[in-house]
Amino acid sequence: MSEIMISINNIIKTYRSMGDEVQALKGVSLSIKKGESVSVMGHSGSGKSTLLSIIGALNPPTSGKIEIDGIDLYSLSQEKRADFRREYLGFVFQQFQLIPYLTAHENVMLPLTTTRRSNKEKQEMAKEALVRVGLGNKLNRLPNQLSGGEQERVAIARAIVNEPPLILADEPTGSLDTKTGDEIMALFQKLNEEGLTVLMVTHNPDNVKYLSRTIMMKDGRLLNHDEQLITTMNNTIL
Amino acid sequence: MKLYNISINNLLRRKLKLLFVLLGLIIGIGTIVSVYSVVDAMKLEMTRQASEFGVNVVITPDAGGLAFSYGGITLPEIMYDVEQLTNEDVTTVASVSSKEMIKIISPKLMGLAKLENHKKAMVVGANLQEEFTIKPWLRLKNDNEAEADNDIKANAEEGDKNMSFQSLDLSRQELALLSLNDNQVIVGSMSAASLGLTEGSVLQLEGKEFEVYGILAESGNGEDNQIYMSLTVAQELLNRPDEITVIEMAVDYSLSSEEKLLSELEAALPHTQITSMRQETLRRDEMLTRLVRFGMTISVLVLLIGMLVVGLTMFSSVRERTREIGVFRALGFRKLDIAKLILLEGLLISIGGGILGYLFGMLVANYSGELLVGREIVVQWHFSTIVLAVGLAIFMGLISSLYPAYSAANQDPVEALRFF
Ligand SMILES: Nc1ncnc2c1ncn2[C@@H]1O[C@H](COP(=O)(O)OP(=O)(O)OP(=O)(O)O)[C@@H](O)[C@H]1O
Ligand SMILES: [Mg+2]
């Protein structure tokens, strides 16, 4: 078993829409070890979400190679990639993206829906995940009956219910107040300590202290170490 | 949790959308079911009439191509130079080799008889028991009318169950009443009204006095204008001994072929015109077929529109759920899982729409049937119809969900998760 969780080599992503071409990623190379927790920062439009969706096996790059746990993602068929997402990845989206007509418990069960487990097993796994995020007592609430922080926890429970090795989160604290945001970050820290690899896009420099490494992006490229230092300093000054 | 749990939850949450799609299906299926049921009931009603009104072969003198109008007012005067039917012809009819098909023969003499005031009245001489058996809708207005009504209804119900000839009930109570004396007549309702006759009053015909034995209840047919008496009495009164104007018969076609009987009759009675009411029935059938075709065309149109409504609603729902579908895909649902999810929703709606549409259609059939046919009709509840209706609804629902399901499955999850 390799030590490397994510290995990205010279990824280029060009979006074409209505004759317009946008190069969102202009040659990104990156390596993330198992057990790391990494934050991705950068200005709006710098390509953070694009990078995350490519790592998330949702968005084929225009060129370049990406491997997760040694698996070349985009050599897999679409259906195999769906299976891969289910088994390897936990997604936490901005604005939670809970399904409004399903209860917390059912939302967490979603990644298990298409697996061959028994109903009982699914229910127990989902309950366990909710207990892990501290929501064991609100199983049957609909999303709109939960606070923002609670919804975020449900979203995290949904991401970990399959026990994937890697969690991808896009601005998970973006719509939470500082205190709740800190609680959520502490939860991510706890999950990371329990062995999960975490990759998180964030705008909030305060979140960085909960994570082991920060990657800075600018105009579709990663900043090298020195540039990162300067930017981080600028951010701190600002 | 299974896919269908997601579908059910989604449907229950989007009640308005659900209602809209359901409505499309209900109207489509309802129209088909109601048209089908009304037509079915009409067919039943017509068969019932055809067998209840047992007259199905009429023999008249050959008027040399002139249509001989029977049923309305017949004018025997214009028939003078035509060879009339005779008592002998009746015997001939009764002895053809297919005679077992002929259940009842009712020969009649019709003519005009002078009243006291030099006006004339239509007199019909008939063997009344036969005449009243072959025309079971004829009955006497009597004091205990209500009781008679019940009898008729009971008869009609029996007729529904068994539409064969045996249902011509020879033992009807009223027939026992029909032992007319030679000086007694039975008067049609309109004649009675215009002549001011009631039960027991006396009437002069060709200078002879007759007692009104009873008045016929209104039938809406020619009988309302007639005065019934025994055949022999009429032949004597009108001074047309042996003469017969028309022979009406009830024939059971189930026993042997129609053609055989008709050709035998034609051979035995060369100077007559033989009309088989079967032709009538055939014509009615043709009309019915056209009606069915018309109804079905409309139904299919409504059905297509219903499918369009279902398809469009499903499609817009899929569009609305772009993000949701993106989330499903990110969480590891395969394209096929997404398609299944949408089709499952279509299926669930279809089953509901089929059942509700069936009930709606039956309701419409029950209320509109009376309007269309002009009398109360009996809409039948068939298990096969509900199976057909639900089957059709499922077919419709699935067909119209196909494209929405396909487009949902092929939505780009990245596009769906642009916020990501
Ligand atoms: N599906 C798409 N089609 C066309 N252009 C796209 C698409 N997705 C992203 N882009 C473009 O690619 C560039 C990078 O977008 P991306 O969403 O990755 O940025 P980001 O760093 O996540 O920004 P933000 O912080 O605002 O979320 C932007 O210029 C964006 O307009
Ligand atoms: Mg983004």
What does this structure look like?
- The complex is a heterodimer of chains A (238) and B (420).
- Chain A has helices spanning 48-55, 78-88, 104-109, 119-132, 148-160, 178-193, 225-237, and strands spanning 4-17, 20-33, 37-42, 63-68, 71-72, 89-92, 166-170, 197-201, 213-218, 221-222.
- Chain A is α/β, with parallel strands linked by helices.
- Chain A has a single domain, classed as P-loop containing nucleotide triphosphate hydrolases (Rossmann fold, 3-Layer(aba) Sandwich), CATH 3.40.50.300.
- In chain A, the strands form 2 sheets. Chain A has a 6-stranded mixed β-sheet, with helices on both faces. In chain A, strands 2-1-4-5 form a 4-stranded antiparallel β-sheet, with helices on one face.
- In chain A, strand 4 (63-68) and strand 5 form a beta hairpin.
- The longest helix of chain A has 16 residues, at 178-193.
- Chain A is globular, with a radius of gyration of 18 Å.
- Chain A starts with a strand and ends with a helix.
- The model of chain A has no long low-confidence stretch (mean pLDDT 90).
- Chain B is α+β, with helices and mostly antiparallel strands and 420 residues long.
- Chain B folds into 2 domains: 3-49 and 286-417, no CATH class; 84-270, no CATH class.
- In chain B, strands 1, 3, 4, 5, 6, 7, 8, 9, 11 and 12 form a 10-stranded mixed β-sheet that branches.
- The longest helix of chain B has 44 residues, at 277-320.
- The model of chain B is unreliable at 71-77 and 143-172 (pLDDT under 50).
- The A-B interface holds A 49, 52-53, 56, 58-59, 78-79, 82-83, 85-87, 91, 93-95, 97, 99-102, 106, 109-114, 119, 122-123, 158, 162, 170 and B 1-3, 5-6, 9-10, 12-14, 323-324, 327-337, 413-414, 417, 419-420.
- The structure holds adenosine-5'-triphosphate and magnesium ion (MG).
- Magnesium ion binds at residues 48-49, 170 of chain A.
